[in-house]
From TrEMBL:
Protein name in UniProt: Putative proline/betaine transporter
Top-rank taxon, per record: Bacteria
Taxonomic lineage from the root: Bacteria, Bacillati, Actinomycetota, Actinomycetes, Pseudonocardiales
GO molecular function per UniProt: symporter activity
Function: May be a proton symporter involved in the uptake of osmolytes such as proline and glycine betaine.
Subcellular location(s) per record: Cell membrane
Pfam families: Sugar_tr (PF00083)
Keywords associated with the record: Cell membrane, Membrane, Symport, Transmembrane, Transmembrane helix, Transport
Amino acid sequence: MTSQSSLPDNVAAPPTENAALSRRSVVAAGTGNALEFYDFAVFASLTPVISTLFFPAGNPVAAILSTLALYAVGFVVRPVGAILLGQLADRRGRKFTLFLALTLMGVTTVLVGVMPTYAQVGILAPALLCLARVLQGISVGGEFGTAATYLIEHSPRHKRGLYGSFAVFSSASGSVLGIFVVLMLTISMTQETLSGWGWRLPFLLGFPLLAIGMYLRFRLAESPEFEELKAEGTRAQNPLRTLFREHWRAFLTVLGISVGYQILSATIQGFLLTHIRTVVGMPAVPALTTVLIAALLGLGMVLVVGTVADRIERRTLLLMACGLALVLPLPCMLIISLGGFGPVLIGQIVFWIPLAIFGGVVSAVFADLFPAQVRASGFGIAYGFGVAGFAGTTPFVATLLVDSSGTVLAPAWYVIAAAAVTMVVVATAMRRTT
């Protein structure tokens, strides 16, 4: 098991004359990936509003925790989507599966945008919202692993790190777009208008955006590696059985790396905004602005690391990310707790550094751990369980830790513990390469 490319010798990278087609396919896959994650970012950004609309009035902390628990549902069901759609991608094809995942997300996004609130239908409101989150979680669960697999399989062998980083870049771009839309609404609307009907607009806006993504994906070219599997008749008949019988070590390695990566990612992208608004006490507009600026800078760092990952040992980069995730969370949370636009922004930017290193390298590492026959299943299912077990619960756990301990540093210790686990996994499960 190495951190470098492990393609079989008979699987060639896309030929030079197909480079333009490869780039178009990458853009189409990345665009759909971004639009899928747009909805998740909108939901997270509107957590303080949604908590007052879909749950009974009373304890505001309890309402936020309930909303974050509902947010976690979308993550917890991701392994289901990964199992269903990952196997489909290994049997039927990457293109068909990516189109199906995006279609499911489009329907459920519109449903959230027209959903009645607690004041209108009572307990049915959070129940319907929970159902929508389940369907969205299934969609995204099958999305990321398949999209990353598709991107890696369209990449030249010497650019697998860069192409793989685009999976993280595109999903995070969708998150940035969602934050930006919520920021614009927050600036242009009163709180009463936003709570009355304005919160629906980002979800409804997601539908035409997703329609564009569906059009682009309909025109996708199939992965060249999957086409070769079809031509040779070597597709796995039962990807799930093959995965757990022959590649369980790779599966466990992905889970181990996901502990630190997912908890760090969810802390920064899922927890900090709510924390900055409710605990630090920063108003919505400057809070969203700091998150947006930090995320944009972080996205740039992801692509830089993806490029570097094709030149430097990926194991070294993962260990570097773990090391920074051990030493940076405490000072970052302390700086953010000072309040004020500058400290809050600086704390988030520094926090993004280890996350960007993880994001720039994990897709290539995870994809190369599995052969093409089970790559979408192996990548997607292992990643989905990592997201469900660690990312989806992090905002809830972090908020609960702050509330129960009375210290804003509690989430930092959670991130540090996770980074320590992942450092051990990387150091022991991934061999040093020459």
